[in-house]
Amino acid sequence: MANASTETFRTARDFLLAHREDYDTAYAQFRWPELTEFNWALDWLDVVAKDNDGIALWVVEEDGSERKLTFAQMSERSNRLANWLRGHGVGRGDRLILMLGNQIELWETILACIKLGAVLIPASTLLGPADLRDRVDRGNARHVVVGSVDAAKFAEVAGDYTRIAVGEPVEGWS
Fold first, then answer.
1. In what order do the strands lie in the sheet with 162-166?
2. 66-109 per-position pLDDT tens digit
3. How far is CA 68 from CA 13, 54, 114, in A?
4. CA-CA distance, 121 to 147, in Å (whole number)?
5. Is the separation of the CB atoms in 145 and 98 below 8 Å?
6. Could you tell me which CATH number the domain at 39-166 has?
7. How many CB atoms lie within 10 A of CB 162?
8. Which of 2, 10, 47, 118 stands the most exposed, by the fewest C-beta atoms within 10 Å?
9. Where in the chain is the domain with CATH 3.40.50.980?
10. pLDDT (tens digit, 9 = 90+) per residue, 119-156?
11. What's the CA gap between 83 and 167, in Å, rounded?
12. 33 with 12: CB under 8 angstroms?
């Protein structure tokens, strides 16, 4: 069931879609919705995703293999991940470094963090230990989600942060 914020967002979005080829009207009449509280992943994606078997994510790998997830699957999987992350201490306002390539887990983690209210610090997989140390320190990161292949880059990055590896198990990492 949609709440008032969801309906306000939907009305603004529908106005822009209806006037997408009429710039003058869109520019003159569009007003940003004033939302006192709105979580896009919970108040929009999860509402739209209910029983929605449309393709939400389509990842094509370099070798030509593909993975597709529907809106309903993305909603359910990001809910599960949000609950798992919450169980590992990720909460509202926590800063989380996310260092993954373009893979399903990247997008699931983004949605899960939005649902939790965590603050994402995106990090390229090309970064080395010095860059990562800087991000942990200046970003005051409490959590790190990284591909297993890049976990070793954090060996020299001191700090009391939750270490989460995606892929093959890494000793000392969740």
1. 119-122, 95-99, 143-147, 162-166
2. 999 999 999 999 999 999 999 999 999 999 999 999 999 999 99
3. 25, 10, 21
4. 15
5. yes
6. 3.40.50.980
7. 17
8. 2
9. 39-166
10. 999 999 999 999 999 999 999 999 999 999 999 999 99
11. 19
12. yes
